[in-house]
Amino acid sequence: RAERPVGGEVESLLGSAAGGAGTVSRGGGADHDGGDEGDAAPQRRPRPSRDGFPFMFGSRLNSMRDRPDLADGPVSTPRDLVRRQAKARGLDCVDFNYPQHFDGHWSAEEARDCLEEHGLVAGAVCLRYPPRFARGAMNHPDPEMRREAIEMTMAAADAARVLGCDEVVVWSAYDGYDYPFQVDYDEKWEQLVEAFRECCDAYPDVRWSLEYKPTDENTRYFTVPSTGAAVLLVRDVDRTNFGLTLDVGHMLMSGENPGQSIAMAGRRLFGVQLNDGHTRLAAEDGLVFGSVHPGMALEVMWRLRRVGFAGHFYFDTFPQRTDPVAEAELNVRRARMFWDAAAGLDRGEVERIASEHDAMAALDLVERALSRGGGEGGDR
């Protein structure tokens, strides 16, 4: 079993190195290089939006099923959803669920052509394991089912290559347990480590990320239930193309401060999902970004700037009773506003406040930043 870091070793991943070795038998990649590569993950620049904003914007595709009475056409197929989402001003990319948005609908090539038709690109491919994995995906007790889950995960990477993106986000609704003594925690952890190593080595050109969640109606306790546990998993997997996707709502559900969680992930933060929520009874509300916790939203953007985030902004929200196109447009505007407000913060002032633990000055900083709003131009 992998030796796990303890105590002070579980720190920001900004300077960690990758190690280990693996032989690739799938995906056409080269053997994994076990040498010291210095930084935690290969540096890359984010793809800007069409109007020059530093990041592309994407939004939850399934949200386009909401309020069908406001749609100007059907909302039953992925093609319908892409067509409707393309109407939202400010969106640049689409994150597809795999296999949900492909099997029985269209090929990855057809999805790519549809994106081109509507002036969009693929942002990422996100795993959504079917209900037959209700007892676990990479953690299923049956080794044949675990193998099927891993093969499905790598098939998502094949789809990503066709779509022209290099990100695969893994969130499993089923990898966890409900009761004490139900699973062997160490065994489940090692199953995840080995599965992700296999995926990373087979597809070295793909950026694999885990999206953790603390609890869900399908699984009361996940194998990876917090940012701290997710950081530990990144250390154990020990591959430069493995990192994290952090969802603001999931961090709030975990009782975390999202800004601190982003700092913990450092340069291994491959993706971010923006939303907000009241988190009553550990519910995932999926509200408009910054609508409930504006101060935290401002710090999220400040920390994303500090860690050199290079992914895209994805809105994992649930409009349900609201026009999903208008809601997506509002999310874009609010993300831009908070990003610009964070750009206007004085780094020296922020560092002074932190060094003195000055709570009143921190609250005043947030109040002034949000009252100014986002500026135009400059370092956005």
Automatic annotation (TrEMBL):
SUPFAM superfamilies named in the record: Xylose isomerase-like (SSF51658)
InterPro entries (alphabetical): IolE/XylAMocC-like, Xyl_isomerase-like_sf, Xyl_isomerase-like_TIM-brl
Record-annotated Xylose isomerase-like TIM barrel domain positions: 84-327
Domain of life where this protein originates: Eukaryota
Compositional bias segments (type: Gly residues): 17-28
Pfam families given in the database record: AP_endonuc_2
Classification via PANTHER family: HYDROXYPYRUVATE ISOMERASE
UniProt protein name: Xylose isomerase-like TIM barrel domain-containing protein
Organism encoding this protein: Thalassiosira oceanica
